[in-house]
Every structure is written in C-alpha cells, then in structure tokens.
Amino acid sequence: MFPNLTALQLSTQGASMTCTQGKLSSLTAMAMVLGLIGMACSSSGLKRATDAAISGDGGSNPGGGTTGAGGATSTSTSTSVTGAGGATSTSTSTSTSVAGAGGGTTTIGAGGSLADGGGAETGITPEPGAPTIQPDGYVTLDTGTIVMMGHVSSYGSGSGSSITLSYGSNSFCASGTVAADSTYASWAGAGFNVNQAESGASGSSGSLVLSGSSISVSYVNHAGSTLEFQLYDGSDYWCSYLPAATSPTTITIPFSKLNTQCWNGLGSPFVSGTPITAVQLMVPCGAVSPTPFDFCFLGLTVQ
Questions:
Q1: Is position 50 within any domain?
Q2: Which 3 state secondary structure label does DSSP give 221?
Q3: What does each of the 303 residues of the chain score in pLDDT, given as a tens digit?
Q4: What backbone torsions phi and psi does residue 186 show, to the nearest 5 degrees?
Q5: Domain holding 294: CATH number?
Q6: Is residue 246 assigned to a domain?
C-alpha cells in the first residue's frame, strides 16, 4: 500500500490505525492518509517518528499492528423542542476509545454528528472558503481556484486514545485525548478527501491538482494542543504547524513552507501543480502525558 515510504516511516509501522465514517470509501490504490504522523518529542524540539494510514469502508491496518483490547464505543442522540411550533434539533455523536496493550486504533463511525441548522463551531460567521457539509458528511469546498469534494472523517491511534468527530453545515470539529506514548505511535485528527463521489463507493476517490503559491487555513484550537495542517498525495505528505488559536483564526501558509519534514524543515517543499488526495488537521502525542485536544476546521482558500 505504501511503496514509497521512507526507511524512517517503515521502521515504525507496528502501530495501527483504522477509520470509518458514514460513506467514506476505500481510496483508489491506497488509503486516504489522515494522520500519517507520530511525533518524537525531545527537549530540543519535535521529531517525526511513525506513519500510518486511514481508509474508509472498514479501514486498513497497513502496519500489521493489532487493535488494543478493551475498547469501548458509545453513541448518544438528543432531541429538543422549543415552544409551540418551535424548532427541533437533533444531534448524534459517535465516539470510540481504545485501551489495552499492543498498540491501538481509534475508529469513528457514522460520520460523527450533525446539528440541524448549525455548524459544529457555533456563534461565528462562516470564514472565507468555509465548507458546505451535507448530513451524510459530504464536504464541498470552493478554494477560489478549485472545488474540493469528499467525505469528512476522523482517525486516531494509540492505546487509550479517544476521539469524537462532529460537523455542521459549515465546519467540522474533533475532540478527545491522544494517549502518551514513549514510542510516539499515538495521534488523532480529522480531514476530508478532495476528489470523491458522494456515493462513497469503492474506487470513487481520486486526486486533485493543487496549483498556486499559498494556502490560507481557517481554524480554532480550543484546547491549545500542538496542531498540524497537512496535505497528502497518496504517497507523500506535506505539513506545517498551526499557531495557537483559541478563537477563529486564518493563517496563510506559502507552499514553500509546507514540508515533508515540518518538524525540522529538512524535507521537500510542496510544489504547485502537485495532485493531492486529502486535507487534514492532526494532533501528535506527547512522550509522558496525554494530550487533550479540541479543534475545528473552518475553511480553506488557495492563492
């Protein structure tokens, strides 16, 4: 599945990851990678340590690892009615926690949650390039240069990690905890395919050429965790750390600052005209303490 992985990536593929959501399909000759990264943390900075993959329709386990025992899944649905003739809102949230030895996988199913008439991040004006998200989790996003379309999903790995995905009409959010891991094989994130049919059928996803000089990302990071923006093309990924932002923020990232080794800047920069398959936000682990996270994706434009 990953013929172009580097020796560093291959050395730590024992960690596993699985992802499902409402209609997210298996990608074309590979899985949509949303996560790809475990982080090695040292007193002098952060280093990348491991990669894994995400796919739809039952997910994949490319590294050969095993799912930790003792995981638990909970689903809750609530409905409220206000006054005579008032509005009714319904939300459904699906979350999975992973516990046990031997590594772990966190899986979010059914596409998270949708609150009728509102976004996952409420009380704000939609940002430029805000996605339009259907009840089945299908994203349509006009970047100003191209239109991205595909299902939103969440993913995670690490024994004891947990994550909940939610989405509304103009944003999606992920919250939970990334388990501490001295081998740096824990992470969590959320994102979407960029060229996928709404059917989500097998073989319905492809790539989309991304041309320009920079990309502007709108987001909020309520918990203040380390957060990366990432692009993936089916074999390589480019990332950039997003500044702390506890209120809605837009940051513009030159393509030259999106790097295959964003933790040290020694990798290859993103080149205009490169086809990509997925966009994601990802939270890496800490070596000693669990990392709580709570972030939302609000929009994206390309210049």
A1: yes
A2: strand
A3: 333 333 333 233 333 333 434 443 333 333 333 343 333 333 333 333 333 333 333 333 332 222 233 333 343 433 333 333 333 333 334 464 544 333 333 333 334 434 333 446 666 667 779 999 999 999 999 999 999 999 999 989 898 999 999 999 999 999 999 999 998 899 999 999 999 999 999 999 999 999 999 999 999 999 999 999 999 898 899 999 999 999 999 999 999 999 999 989 999 999 999 999 999 999 999 999 999 999 999 999 999
A4: -120, 145
A5: 2.60.120.430
A6: yes
| Residue count of the chain | 303
| Residue 2 is assigned to a structural domain of this protein | no
Dihedral (C-alpha) 244, 245, 249, 251: value to the nearest 10 degrees?
Answer: 0
**Following CA atoms 119, 281, 141, 108 in sequence, which dihedral angle do they give, to the nearest 10 degrees?**
-60
Domain that holds residue 68: 7-302
Tell me whether residue 247 is exposed, middle or buried, using C-beta atoms within 10 angstroms of its C-beta: 0 to 12, 13 to 18, 19 or more: exposed
Strands 45-50 and 208-210: unpaired
Place of tokens 């992470």: 187
Give the count of domains, the chain. Answer: 1
- Indicate whether 1 belongs to any domain: no
